Amino acid sequence: MDNIHHDSEIDHQDGHSPTLGKSAYRWIILVVFSLMTLDTQILWLTFTPITFEVATIYEVSTNWILMLSMVFMIAYIPFNFVATSSIEKLGLRFGTGIGVALTGLFAFLRGFFVTNFIWIMITQTLIAIGQPFVLNSFTKLSVNWFPEEEKTLATGLNTMTLLLGAILAFMLTPVLYTTISLEGLLLTYGVLSLVLAVLYFVTIREKPNLPPNLYSIKDEKITVSKKESFKNRDLIMLFGLVLIGLGIFNAISTEIDILFNDPTNISAAGNIGGAMIIGGIIGAVILSTLSDKFHKRKIFLIIAMFVGTILILFMYFFDSYVERLIEATILGFFLVAALPVALTFAAEITYPLPEEVSNGWMMWAGQISGIALILCVMFIPSLFVNYIIIASLFAIGFVISLLINDVDKYKLNEKND
Question: Which residues cross the membrane (predicted)?
């Protein structure tokens, strides 16, 4: 593996500057990992844009079809801790690989049980168990492989492919469903998942020959209590922000066909969800780059919460198809792009804990609140009340974001005496 060496001004504890390097192979690692991330999202949201049609096929209520997506959030709650421990002990290739294997195998098998709803639910649950092994690895991959000035960008690009998977599910699923049937749709996604799983094990390596940044150099003499780290005031507030922001994104993604249903246009809800994701993809690149360039995190969280508060209300009162497309694009740009910033910030606050620990807790938060908000939509008949609940949560997040300290408080010193 070729490494481009560059000098570091930061002293290590032995008095010598550590030698850092940039490996060209990091981009191959990122592409393969991102494709696996994309796949998990397609599998999660497979049934979301065709909720009513699938409910008719299986002769069940729409709530049961929503469960095919919500099971991913439910499974995340207990298996988050299993995934975090596995990644910490076994690393990217084998720790994360457990989830990759579950995803590839059971997505493939799902296509052969299309006539049996119970088996669809079982395979969907086993795919869901694999998801935290993949999503909890975002910051570990960034820290293991990317230099300081690219860490948030790498996490942002992973988040971007997470979003790309969602947009493909929103827009591609209705097309495949109408052209090759539900069975053809599930078989197509299954074969894709199996191929990507094999590719993952063939290409993924744990880390480059030289550490790319100071955060990837962990002194084994340093012992940090996870319990003490998670008493940190800023981390608790950041946890609250992710609880709100990621939870709302998960809920909107899962309930897209109900929140934005248009009986005259089967693709309307999917296109609105797609617009949110496209905005998020653009924002993930632009805002992550700016966050790395200026080494600031707080301002991007403040903007995301403020914009979310306003735009959710706009999406209720200005509800024409075109208006919602515009509103969803802007919401995605700021809200979704805040996730890689938050994940990177959490890893910096909790350093030198393994990155998968903070990553896991942040993603776990989004599943908890996502489930709660989905239940609100399922059991509170008034859409207006549900929109007000979401707007109120964003407003609370805005206040929290104003109180949090920025990353400057946690930046590694350029000289350690």
Answer: 24-44, 64-83, 90-111, 117-138, 159-180, 186-204, 235-254, 266-287, 299-318, 330-349, 361-381, 387-405
